[in-house]
Amino acid sequence: MKGIIFLLLIMAFLGCDSTRKKPVIEEVNLVGTVGLDQPERLSEWGLFLEPLKELSPGLGVVPYDLNAPLFSDYAQKARFVKVPDGTRATYDSSEVMSFPVETILIKNFYYANDLRESDGERRIIETRLLIHEPPGWNALTYVWNEEQTEAFLEIAGKTVPISWTDEAGVLKRVNYSVPNLVQCKSCHERSGQMSPIGPTARQLNRDYTYEAGVENQLDHWEEAGLLSGLPGGDHRPKLPVWDDERTGTLDLRARAWLETNCAHCHRAEGPAKNTGLYLTYNETDQYKLGINKPPVAAGRGSGGLTYGIVPGKPDQSILVHRIESLDPGVMMPEVGRKMRDEEGISLIREWIAQMDGGRQL
Predict the structure, then answer these.
(1) If DSSP states are collapsed to H, E and C, what string results for 225-279?
(2) For 51-89, how does the pLDDT look when each residue is reduced to its tens digit (9 = 90+)?
(3) Where are any strands of DSSP class E within the chain?
(4) Dist. CA 297–CA 318, nearest whole Å
């Protein structure tokens, strides 16, 4: 029975094709693995130097960060990109960059054992690869062993108990969920196709500390031959860092949090498009943002409340009810968390509380 369920899971993710797709890996500088059908070990991709746990990028692998990363049960993330030699991504002012075939986007999820120690030990939980194959994007997830020497391909998902000490010295625990491949697709769906979410111009427009020094990431990508079509600095959008008041107003920072945590589904091309609730950073229609908007289908998720956002009243707003909930049938996002983003919730509550019925966003 377990074998049948496993097979159905794979077929559902691969479009009911029982033949496993092969990632295009000829330009990934692999060590003796060209032509392998989905390498079982992360080390086989040749993306990081040994020792693997240091996450030291290999040839052509470039680190990057985002202005407003997605909340994932307080996991920290180390991101990298590998664009094949001789090709470049194409700049886009509003959507994710257009990456050439054979690009690999790499995201490592980890927890520092003690956040009070800047150079302390960490535990890497998983590494997700988003690979641009000729037919489209494909996702692979690798789960790290306890020794932190290797990560292994995981298709069906996994639960990993995690504990760490936060900045206040409080011990935190969570049963961290590594998603299965169907869940990966549910978040990365755009107009029915798998698509990257994070690397937009407004997310990448920030400084990063490289080995040679601090530089704007977009400028670095252009100089490194990874990006074409980059406009001047005054014409590049920039997303605020939602928990840093120096980077934007309360409105803009709340919108940045919603874009990152909600808008991958709640947009015109996303899997939640039928709700009519669109939470992208550039949305200007207050009704589509949920202000005085009733849900399309009232149910348990609404908590008996009437509108998505009630100006001045966070406790009467469905949006707050759902981002605060840990009930799997109520909470938003639906996957990717088992904890409350306390700081993000506080921001959204403050944003709604200072609204009035006639204000413009």
Answers:
(1) CCEECCCCHHHCCCCCCCCCHHHCCHHHHHHHHHHHHCCCCCCCCCCCHHHCCCC
(2) 999 999 999 999 999 999 999 999 999 999 999 999 999
(3) 61-64, 76-82, 89-90, 104-112, 122-133, 136-144, 151-153, 158-165, 171-178, 189-190, 193-194, 207-210, 213-216, 227-228
(4) 12
Whole-angstrom distance, CA of residue 294 vs CA of residue 125:
39
- Asked if pLDDT for residue 168 goes beyond 80, the answer is yes
Q: Count the neighbouring beta carbons within 10 Å of the beta carbon of residue 209.
A: 10
Q: 232-235, long-range: CB within 8 Å, 24+ apart, which pairs?
A: 235/93
pLDDT at 36 over 80: no
If we measure between CA atoms, which residue out of 143, 114, 147, 117 comes closest to residue 128? Answer: 143
Q: What is the pLDDT of residues 86-122, one digit of tens each?
A: 999 999 999 999 999 999 999 999 999 999 998 899 9
As a whole number of angstroms, the distance between CA 185 and CA 179 comes to 10
Pairing type for strands 207-210 and 61-64 reads: unpaired
**Residue in this structure with the two tokens 């759902």, named with its chain if needed:** 322
C-alpha 13/C-alpha 7 separation (Å) is 10
pLDDT at 254 over 80: yes
Please tell me whether residue 320 adopts helix, strand or coil conformation: helix
Two structure tokens written together for 208: 């990063």
CB 96 within 8 A of CB 237: no
Contact 101, 137 (CB under 8 A): no
Q: Give dist(CA 297, CA 264) in Å, integer.
A: 20
Q: What is the mean pLDDT of residues 124-131?
A: 97
Closest CA to 109 of 156, 55, 149: 55
pLDDT in tens, 325-358: 999 989 998 877 899 999 999 999 999 999 985 4
